[in-house]
């Protein structure tokens, strides 16, 4: 077994969570497409056909897409912290907090999609991410 930085655990956890959301997206999307007897058209403008699906089905796909956006910054900064040997202590706590908030954000968006609540969770996760970036910048520069 190779030694590794503890901060890699929340990285893998968020990647695994992204795949849970991918599965949830398809488990809800495919039956909705079948119920609507939607004929998929490769010539339709991007996303146009999926916009006809019920909102509560689209929310899962929207969240999956969101997990491909800001978390890429988390992956980069967490890997940076792991490489420089700073993937433990407060940085590890911040990383797990970020992951927890992103999972909470997923549930809020995928289940109730209350925008004010979703934004509050997103904002908090962004502050945590800024903390990780600050800590890495302090050590690098």
TrEMBL record:
InterPro entries named among the record's database cross-references: MAPEG-like_dom_sf, Membr-assoc_MAPEG
Pfam families: MAPEG
Keywords recorded for this protein, A-Z: Membrane, Transmembrane, Transmembrane helix
Keyword Transport listed: no
GO cellular component: membrane
Localization of this protein: Membrane
The keyword Transmembrane helix is assigned to this record: yes
Transmembrane segments: 6-27, 73-99, 119-137
Record-given protein name: MAPEG family protein
Organism superkingdom: Bacteria
């Amino acid at each position: 077994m190779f030694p590794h930085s503890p901060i890699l655990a929340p990285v893998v956890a968020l990647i695994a969570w992204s795949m849970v959301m991918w599965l949830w997206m398809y488990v809800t999307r495919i039956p909705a497409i079948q119920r609507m007897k939607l004929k998929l058209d490769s010539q339709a403008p991007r996303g146009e056909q999926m916009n006809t699906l019920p909102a509560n089905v689209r929310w899962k796909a929207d969240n999956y897409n969101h997990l491909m956006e800001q978390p890429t910054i988390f992956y980069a900064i967490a890997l940076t912290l792991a490489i420089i040997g700073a993937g433990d202590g407060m940085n590890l706590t911040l990383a797990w907090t970020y992951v927890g908030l992103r999972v909470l954000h997923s549930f809020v968006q995928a289940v109730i999609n209350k925008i004010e609540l979703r934004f509050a969770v997103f904002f908090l996760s962004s502050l945590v991410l800024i903390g990780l970036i600050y800590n890495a910048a302090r050590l690098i520069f």
